[in-house]
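Changelog-adjacent note: as of this version, every example in the card shows the full chain rather than a window. The one below runs 488 residues end to end.
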Amino acid sequence: MALLTSSVNRVVLAVVMLGAGSGAWQSARAQLTLAVALDRADRSAYGNRVAVANAGVQSAAALVPLKGILPSVRFEAGYIRTTDPIGVFGTTLRQRAITQANFDPQRLNFPGAIGNYQSGVVVEQPIFNAPAWIGRRAAVRAADASRATEEWTRLSTRVDVVQAYYGAVLAAERVATLRGAARAASAHLKQAQSMVAHGLVTKSDALLASVRASDIDAQLAEAAGASASARRLLAVLLGRDGGESSQLLELPATLPSGDRIRAVVAADTGAIEATPRADVRAASRGLDAARADALRARSVFLPQLNSFARYDWNSSDRPYAGDRNWTVGIMASWNIFSGASDLGDVQASAGRAAAAQAQEEAARANAHLDVEQTRTSLDVALTRLSIAERATVQSAEAHRIVGRKYEGGLATVVELLDAQATELQTALALSQARWSTIAAAADRLRALGLDPAALTALDDTAAVAEAAPGVPASTQKDRTSTDSSRTP
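Full-length structure tokens:
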């Protein structure tokens, strides 16, 4: 019996361990990395899907002018019945049924009704159709512009996803930081209340500590709301509804460390030359398309030359029966004037070309400005990151020193609370500085015409020890021991 119980216990233990391992594996699998987020956005983001559809529409539109370039083939079939003298004689002749009796004047003037199945195969081949050829060139350039716009939309969406992804992580980190500050404020309040009870400080100390704790609680509530909103924003960018599904996104607990961020973005210096940007390429192709369209509008006044060939059947019994006839021909036409519509098209297309010219120049100027601005923004962000890291270490040490002095009666509660507030603000500022650096790096990559997906290298944080939210690892150990020593 004991042996059986032991075996059952081992089986239960194995099942529990297997379930725990499976749960951990599912949790790890469910975590959303930046690489996965970008992949989802590429496939499902609303803006990307619209851009892909628009590019498909424009590519399809580029096939329309081929109607005036490629040959066309069509089959015709119909049935008529007539007593018209000319129609009866012509139909009889087409059916190869003319006899001497058909020339009788009475029969020619008053023929009986005759039926005819008219059938044919027609081939038409444009020989010279300038509006079609030039229109085809304009449509192809417009399709190229649409594909470049799709590429730029995808690139911009990736920047938005990078910023929203780490924005959601930043929001969660702020919540964790404020929770830690709330616990520290609660410990200060308990300490002040204990010291009031022992007559070591006045009641005002406890009241001030209570006010500060309430203020941190309010900041925590606000941060929790902002965190939920940040998750919804990320879900929408990934093509999801932003409702309950946003809460299923499993994100990292903290932002990458400053060292990790520098390791990824250090190569992005001012020496990097910008590659041709998709938005500039789209504007350039749009200008080519507009110019070609203006030329097409003017080309309608040129002569056109078309050819055709056809086989015809005429039978009283069924379609495509009887002897066949063939006809070939060539037709020239010259549209000298067909009203004011052609003149209006010429003027409108010229205006569109002028607008496209201005847009292309603006795109190039904005791209150059973007490159310069993002380089400055990234340099400033990296500088702020270094300053925020030093300030966080210094404020944590200052808080520790003031805490010791307050315990010994050498500092007021105002000094203690101010030190805590300074530490909290520097911790939050460090989180913001880390996010700002990532966001600036994403903008910088886009400005250079590079792929923001390069920042997926931030997903690999195994080589860098992460600190507690907003607090460097070198300071975390001191903070833990200090907080525990402050608790009465």
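Structural remarks: The beta strands are 72-82, 114-128, 304-315, 324-333.
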